[in-house]
Amino acid sequence: MRSLSLLLIPACLWLSACEKGNVDLDNAGSMTLQVMVDELAYDMPPRSYARIKLAEGPHKLIVKDSSGRVLEEAAFRVAKGGLINVSKANYYIWADLYGDAALRPSYLKEDWLEIGKQSFFGDFELLDPGLLYVEQKWDFGLSEDFPEDLLGWNVQKDKYLVRRKLFREPDLIQAYYNAARQGDPAAAPPPAKP
Asked: Where is 113: in which H helix or E strand?
């Protein structure tokens, strides 16, 4: 039993280090990719994710297909952290207001968004899929959920907060429908579509 616990300690330390990373390394595509970030290599099956730690400053990225052919090679700079989009998939930031729903028009830029043949109403921003690295401008990454309420937050004098979450495209669609089913104001019926 003692030898088993000694083996688990390094694994637990490695996993906790990954969870405390600052960059979402994500393959939302349908191909297995080999990704090299600086000197570290990652095998990224389709729809796989890793939370990695990268120091502030310049980094190098190489993306290869499963045969080893180079698909992308780029340099990027990390300020605080962000998203490495190795498959050049669509990612969205969804902004939501916590507090008085009457404040939504004042603090959110809600409009219609078309994804395929589906329409969604809210404050959404499509990240440029051509960028391999996007610096973080969201509050919650891919592995985090929007919080249910304001419990424990320091709310401003106007009693509202705007928070943003990063989504893969299919996850955004699912989260929107889940919010609509639960009666969440973020997915409330919007004004009639023009």
From this structure: strand 111-115
**How far is 99 from 96, CA to CA, in rounded Å?**
10
pTM, full prediction:
0.81
Please list, in sequence order, all residues whose beta carbon lies within 8 angstroms of the beta carbon of residue 175, skipping any fewer than 6 positions away. 94, 146, 167
Angstrom distance (rounded) from CA 156 to CA 142: 26
Stretch 64-84: mean pLDDT, rounded?
Answer: 96
Helix (H) or strand (E) holding 143: none
What torsion do the CA atoms of 102, 152, 16, 6 make, to the nearest 10 degrees?
A: -150
Q: Coil, strand or helix: which one is 46? A: coil
**What's the token pair of residue 70?**
């180079």
Contacts of 153 (CB under 8 A, 6+ apart): 98, 161
pLDDT above 70 covers a percentage of the chain that reads 80
